[in-house]
Amino acid sequence: MTRIYAVACLLALLTLQVIAGQSQSTSTPQTPAAQPPSQQPATNPSDEENPPEEDESLAPEKYVLNPLESERNVKVGNYYWHHGKFRAAAERYQRATKYDPSSPEAFFKLGEAEQKLNHADSARACFQKVVDLAPDSKLGSAARKKVGSKG
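User: That's the sequence. What structure does it adopt?
Assistant: Structure tokens below.
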């Protein structure tokens, strides 16, 4: 008995789809040029100057203070660091500094990664930022030694 109901439901759905398909193919949509001027959509000149972002993945990332996300990026950077992928580690440490610009650990790790990539000036700037953020900490004294040395 349930098979009969199932078959009847399927036939009803197919019939509805066929009817809907026929009604869509017979009706012709009006083009904007065929509409009277009073019914045409008004174009806003500011819309043309500032079009909406087409693909959200291409939009620039917005960094809001988020210490947890910063810590997560440091951990991922440490993973890359231990696998010898210093450029990927540097990118993660860079993101960590953007999520938490007051994190001496993120800046210190970024400075070490920049040293490995032979970017002495940016490494020195990162170590100086650590000294500015946490002068009395263990990282601060290590960074002070690295700033004092030539990298």
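The chain has a mean pLDDT of 83.
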